[in-house]
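Researcher: Quick sanity check before group meeting.
Model: Go ahead. Protein one:
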Amino acid sequence: MKKKKEVTLKIPQMTKKSEKPLNPKPEKRKIRRISTSDIEDVAGYKGLVDKENKKNELNNRRNKPILMLTYFFAALFLCMMIYIVQIIVVEKDSIIANPYNKRADAYEDYVTRGEIITSDGVVVATNNAKTRYYPYGNMFSHVVGFSTYGKSGLELDANYYLLTSNADVFERVDNMVNKDKNIGDNVITTLDYHMQEAASNALGDTSGAVIVMEPDTGKILAMVSKPDFDPNDIDNVWASVTAEDSSGSSILLNRTTQGLYPPGSTFKVLTLLAYMREHKDYEDYSYDCLGENIFNSVTIHCASSKVHGEEDLKDSFAHSCNTSFANIGISLDIKAYHDLCNSFLYNGELPYDGVYNQSKFVLTQKSDKSLIPQTAIGQGDTVVTPLHNALIMSTIANGGIMMKPYLIDSIENHNGALIKKFTSESYKKIITPSEAEDLTEYLCAVTEYGTAAKKFEGITYTVAGKTGTAEYNSEGKAHSWFIGFSNVENPDIVVSVVIEDASSTDKTGTSVAREIFDAYYE
C-alpha cells in the first residue's frame, strides 16, 4: 500500500480579537483640505488672543502706579518701624533726658532736686530748705545756671537727672508712707573748681568769655561768661532784665556758647590751612609787607600799619600780617575755602548738647570779590563763638580729630552710688594728622617769636596758639582773642578767650590765657 505524503499548512498567527494582526498594512491617512471657514476661525482666535493681550497690557499699565504706591508705603512703614526701634532702644535715654522735655518738671512734686558737684567734689548747687542755693554765687552763674524762670545752664541740661531719684528702695517706700519727697540724684560735672576760679579771676570785671577743655577727651574744665549774675538773687535779676527800661540786657547770655564775635586773626588758622591745601609749595611763599595795600578795591592795613617787610608764610602767620593774608585770600579757590570752613562746622551744628548759637561763614563763589580780603583776615560777616573756636583748636591739638565737648561726667544717687557714667566720644576726623602737625608748628611760632611771644616769656611749659584783634565798628573798637593749647607734644588743655572792647581795659585775650595756663600748672 502506498504511503501518503504529509503536507504541512502554514496558518497566519493571529492576535487576540481586540488586537490587530502583526505587521498590519499601513493605513492610508486622509488628507483634509483647509477651508475658508477654517482660516476665518484661526483669524478669529488670533484676534481674541490679541484682544486679551491688549487687555492684560492695559491692566498692567493701570496696576503699575498702584504697585509702586504699595511698594512706597511698605518701604515707608519699614522706615517708621526702624525709627521707632531706634528711639526705643538707642535714643531712649537722651530723649527722656532732653532739657526741652517738660514732663520731667512734673517730678518736682515728689522729688527734691539733686545737687550739682564739680569733678573735684565741690558742691555748686544744692538746696537750702525749700530754696535752691548756689554756694559760690556768680562764679558758676552761666554754666550752672538757675532752676526757675524756665531754667538755664546745667540746671536745664541735667534737669531730668536732678529730678530722678535712685535712692534705696526702702527709703523711697518710707518716703511714700510718710508723704515725704525723695532726694534726687546728684550730677557730677567735668568742671574743675580750681580752673573755674582761675578763669573767673583772670577775666575779673571785664566783659568777655573763657572756656577751658581737654582736647583728647572733650571734658570742659571751666566755662566763664562776664558780666555775670548771682543766681541766689535770680528774682531781682529776672525782674531787672525783663523790665521795660532794661534795653535788652544781655547779662543772662552765656557768651561762651551764645556770643557771636568776628574771629579776627584767629580765623587765619583756617585761611592758612586752605592755602596749604591748594599750594603744596607753600613753604616757598614770599610777600613784602608795606603795612598797607589794596586788594580787590579794598584797603587792608596791618595793626598800627606796621611794616613787616619780606616774609615767608610762617612769618606772616606769626606776625599776623593782614596784608599778607589778604594777598593769600584773593588767591584761594572760594568754593574749597567755603567747604573747608563748613568741615570745621561753620554754618552747621556743633556736637554739643547745651544751648549755643551757630557760627557763620557766608563767603561763596557768588559773593562780591571785595569781601574776600576782609574775610581772609577774620573780619567781614564771619562770626564765631568762643566754644566753636575752642573746638577748632582742640581738633588741631588732638591730631585732627574733634571730640564732643561735654559737661556731665556721671550721675550718683544722694548716697554716692554710681548710677550712670558718661564717657568721651570722638565726633569726626576733620583734618589729617600731618595737617595738624604742620598747623601746630605755625602756632608755636606765634608764641615763640610772634604776636604772643612777650606774654609767654618765662613759662615752664610750651604753648601753641593764635592771637586775634577783631574790629566790630567803624570807630576801630575791637575785641581781643586768644586760642591755644599747652604742653604741645602731648596737649593738656585748650583755652579760648575773648575780651570785649579790649581798648577799654588793660586785659587782652593773651594775658588772660597766660593766667589760666599758669593756674593749671601750679
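Researcher: Fine. The other one?
Model: Protein two, sequence then structure:
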Amino acid sequence: MIISRLQLLIRRHFLLLLCLIPGTLSAKVIESSIYVDSEFGNDKNDGTSENTAWRSLEKVNNSTFGPGAKILLKAGGMWIGFLQPKGSGSAEKPIIVDQYGEGEKPLIDGNGMEGKGVLSLYNQEYWEINNLELVNNAETPGDRRGVEIKAANYGTVNHIYLKNLHIHHIKGMIGNGHKEKRTAGIYITTTADKIKPTRYNDILIENNHIHHIQNQGIATSHETAVFDYPEGEQWENRKMTHLLIRNNIIHHISKNAMIIRMTEGGLIERNLCYETATDITGNTIFSRTVRGTVFQYNEGFLNRSPDADGSLYDPDINSPGTVWQYSYSHDNAHGLVWFCTHKRDDGIVVRYNLSQNDKGSLVYFNYAFSGASVYNNVFYIGENLAPVIIREKSNNDHTYEFYNNIIYNKSKNATYGLAKAGKGLQTRTYSNNLFYGFHLAGEPDDPSKITKDPLFINPGVASLGLNNLDGYKLKKQSPAIQTGKLIPGNGGRDFYGNKVDEKNKPNIGLYNGKGL
C-alpha cells in the first residue's frame, strides 16, 4: 500500500502530540535536577534551575524520571494534593526527592483524599525520599496513608530509602482488620504476584518523625501471603530482605507503632515509641510472618492499650528466630513482651532488656510456641503497681528457658500467673534468676535462685533515653556478679556494651561489668 505525503505528515503530527501526553511511552525521561516552587514557580518553565522552577505537583506527577534525576521542592513550600512521580533510578544513580533552600520542610497536604499515600510509588525502584512533611487530615476516617510503596507482578523492588520525613495527622481507620491496618504513616506492600514473583530488597526507613496517625505508624505487608509460614519457595519469592528501620520517633498512634511483616533478617533499632495504642488494643512493636529479624535498642513507653496487648514487643504469629534485645520498656499498659506466636515458632530470644514500672503482664507466654529463651533481663516493679510478673496461658503449649533475670519487686500486690495443670503443656526451665523484694505465691521454682539484694547503683529512677539507665549497673559487692548461667550464642555483649563470652560465668541481669 502506498502512503501519501499527507498521511505521513498526519502520522508525524500525531506522534509529536503523543510525546506531549503525560505517561505515554514516548514521554521524555528526565535525568537531571528539577526544581519545584509552590509560590513563584511556573509549569511552563523548564524546571532546571531555581529561577525557572515548576510550580505544581501535577507537573511532577505527569513526568517520568530516570537514573540520576532529582526532584527538589522548595523549603517552606506548600502543596495540596499528592506526589506520585513516574520512573525508576538505578543502583548507581537512584532518583532523589529532597528540599532545596533554607527553611521548613516542603509540605504536601493530601486534603482528605483517599486510596493512596500523600507520596506514592508503584512498581518503582531506586528512590530516595528525603525532608518532606506529609499530612492528610479529614473530618471522617478513611483509606489514607502518608507514604505508600506498592508493587504488583514486578520482580524485585530495590533500594527504597525514606529519610527525615515528618508524617503526621493521617486520618485513617481505627480497627484490628487488614483494611484498617493498611492505614498508616508508612505502608509498604505487595498487592499481586501470581504473574511474576515480587518482593522488596534494601529498604531503609530512618530519622523520620511520625505522629498522630490512625491506625499504624509503620507497616510492611503482603496483601495475600502475610498469613503464610516463612519457609519454602514461595517465601523465597516474597520475602523482604535488607530491611533497616532506625532512629525514628513515633508517637500518638491509634494502634501499633510498627508492624513488621514478610521480612527475612532485617534490623529494627534505636526507635523511640510512645503514646501508642491510644484508641484500640495493640502492642507497640510486633512482627508477623518474619524469620530472624532483630529488634534492638528501642524504647517504648506510655502504651495506652485498654485491654489485651499493650507491651513494648510482640513476637507474633510466624516469627521464628526473632531476637528482641537491648531495649527499654517502661510505664506501659503491659510489659516487655507478649508472645502471640505460632506453635511451630522456635529460636525466639528475649535478652538484655529493662522493664521499669510496666503494668499488666510483664512477660506473657500467650499463644503456643516450640522454643524461646528469656535471659539477662531486669524487671523493676514499683511499690504502687500490681502487674502479673510472669503469665502463661494454660491451654497452649510452651517450651522456654528463663535464665539470669532479675525480678526486683517492691510491690506486695504483684502476682505470678504460671499455668497449673490444663490442656497446655508447660515445659519451662528456670535457673540462676535473682528474685528480690516481695516473694509472692506462685513465684517460679528455680533451683539456683538468689534472693539477696542485687545492689543496683540506683534502681527505679531511670528517666527517658537509653543513655540514662546507669542505675541498673551493679555495685562491686553484688551477689549477681559472675553468678549467672553460661548461655551459648549469648550475643557477645550486655546492654551497656560490656563483653559477654561463653567461657566465663556472666552476671545476672543486663550489666556484665565488674561492678562499680
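Researcher: One line on it for the slide.
Model: The chain has a mean pLDDT of 94.
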